[in-house]
Model the fold of this input.
Amino acid sequence: MENNQPSLLKRFMPLIVFLALIVLLAIGLTLNPREVPSVLIGKPAPEFNLPLLFNEGSFSNKDFIGQVTLVNVWASWCFACRQEHETVKHLSRNGVRVIGLNYKDEPDAAKSWLAKLGNPYQAIAVDYKGRIAIDWGVYGAPETFLIDKDGIIRHKVIGPLSDKEKYDELMAVMNTLEK
Done:
């Protein structure tokens, strides 16, 4: 006599799969989608050498050595960059070395944007094609990296610095570097 009864495992498999999906969904709902970990934290800034927006010459990763630096990835077409611009200007006015990385932008548009809103950057490297930004793990503008005096990336902010929580977290990390 054959046993036509399905095994317990086959019988409860849909329930097991359903419960596993519920657990994964619950875990996913507790995560902050704006927190994307960077594999570059604690590593040297990627090598690059880019032309400057306003001057002849270039800016490279070697120019980070000796000073704590914020690298702010921005573009004139970026709405959130406009949103954070006053915060970037505030940081610059208060002695923070801010280097701009102009991302996939037209030079004339970038210059016009800065003429209208103010230029808080000590230098602006231009990444016309976005290739260097890929090496930095940039998802889009704005993003900001905190580089220590040895050229090591210590923190990354995705999105506008005008967000109080992001700003406070950045300042906390920056204060540990300046001691």
Summary: The domain at 49-177 is CATH 3.40.30.10 (Glutaredoxin). DSSP finds five helices and seven strands in the chain. The chain has one domain: 49-177. The longest strand covers residues 97-103.
